[in-house]
Amino acid sequence: MPRHVAIIMDGNSRWAEKRGWPASVGHEAGVRSLREVVKLSQQWGIQVLTVFAFSTENWLRPKMEIDFLMDLFERFSREHLTTMAAENIEVRCVGDHSMLPESLRNVIATLEESTKHNTGLKLSIALSYSGRQDIVSACKRLMGQVQNGEISSSDMTEAAIDEELQTSWVGEARDPDLLIRTSGEQRISNFMLWQTAYTEFLFVDSLWPDFGETQLKDALIEYQKRNRRFGKHGN
């Protein structure tokens, strides 16, 4: 079983479009899939689940869709605050939250505070996240430490950068073992670029609202067939 599964939840709008419905219906359906995957991950012993909910590039979408998504994220956080705490799930949101509505930032802070002592599944939600910016910000913080005389330039190692990335909060399992992208697209779209250096990628045709227990089980079985060598052995 992979310790850390990351998912690019793609295909909500296409799922709705295929049915002649507005994109908002697809996003609502995507939340239901997320609920199920979180529940299954907890039940099946996955330690960390990271989901790509909203990228920095997504701010270029139509304002009406963005406003709906912000409201949806806020409602999801409010509705599941008690549930996450009760189910021993620790939740944190990573990304640049400066552009998020203040009400959403407040709900996120409450959700993180109420679950910070939980010891079960670690749920990391990438919201207004950029993998490139994550790396740049980490390097800037280290450079600031060098300029302040706190560390020397020789201390700027891979391990030091790794510790400064937003995803470091999950501990030893911070690098995903398996990354799943739904909807048939075969790219990672600026998601966890540093952390996925040795991650197994799986691209599935299912649109995110259609992704559930069967699809997750199939993905885990496919992962278990892989031979992860980390560059140590040849073919």
TrEMBL record:
The keyword Transferase applies. Keywords: Transferase. CDD domains: Cis_IPPS. Transmembrane segments: none annotated. Its EC number is 2.5.1.-. PROSITE patterns: UPP_SYNTHASE (PS01066). NCBIfam families: PRK14830.1, uppS. Belongs to the UPP synthase family. HAMAP family: ISPT. PANTHER family: DEHYDRODOLICHYL DIPHOSPHATE SYNTHASE 2, DEHYDRODOLICHYL DIPHOSPHATE SYNTHASE FAMILY MEMBER. This is Alkyl transferase. It comes from Sphagnum jensenii.
